[in-house]
């Protein structure tokens, strides 16, 4: 389910091709043209939910949670992902079935605006508190050893105090 909240941004990988070809005779505008398009829509949400269901043990609950997590990403982009140039990223939600409507909010704040910084900071604190208390963190997705180091470091730095 963690991957469901970030998988819409797979269409952002086009920035690599765009960046490496920007000074060439034939630049690839894959990020400019396809970010918030290919992975930010209902069709991709359905596809990824079905893929998750295929691999899940608890198919129904996993599929629902993946679908919700995916849409939380879209909501976050709709609220606070305006570009540095002021461009409000529209989300062509009904793709591939229809190009309309494109979802956009006129009050969308910039990606580096204070609300995003505050929300990120608070969620990092919550993640660290939960990791310290529960003994595991999201790092376990990548490395059990790295997760153990992270949790043990948190527990040494912020020991759990038991009131008698």
How would you describe what is shown here?
- This protein is an all-alpha fold and 164 residues long.
- It folds into two domains: 108 residues, no CATH class; 52 residues, no CATH class.
- Helices cover 54% and strands 2% of the residues.
- The protein has seven helices and two strands.
- The protein has a two-stranded antiparallel sheet.
- Helix 4 packs antiparallel against helix 5 and helix 6 crosses helix 7.
- The chain starts with a helix and ends in a 7-residue tail after the last helix.
- 18% of the residues are buried.
- The mean pLDDT is 89.
Could you say which overall geometry the principal axes of the C-alpha atoms support? globular
Q: What share of the residues lie within helices?
A: 40-55%
Q: What is the CA-based Rg, rounded?
A: 19 Å
Largest sheet: 2 strands, antiparallel
| Secondary structure tally: strands | 2
| Helix/sheet category | mainly alpha
Question: What fraction of residues sit in β-strands?
Answer: under 5%
Q: Topology as H/E string?
A: HHHHHEEHH
**In DSSP terms, counting alpha (H) and pi (I) runs of 4 or more, how many helices?**
7
Low-confidence stretches: none
Spatial gap, N to C terminus: 39 Å
Strand order of the largest sheet: 1-2
**Mean residue pLDDT:** 89
Total of domains: 2
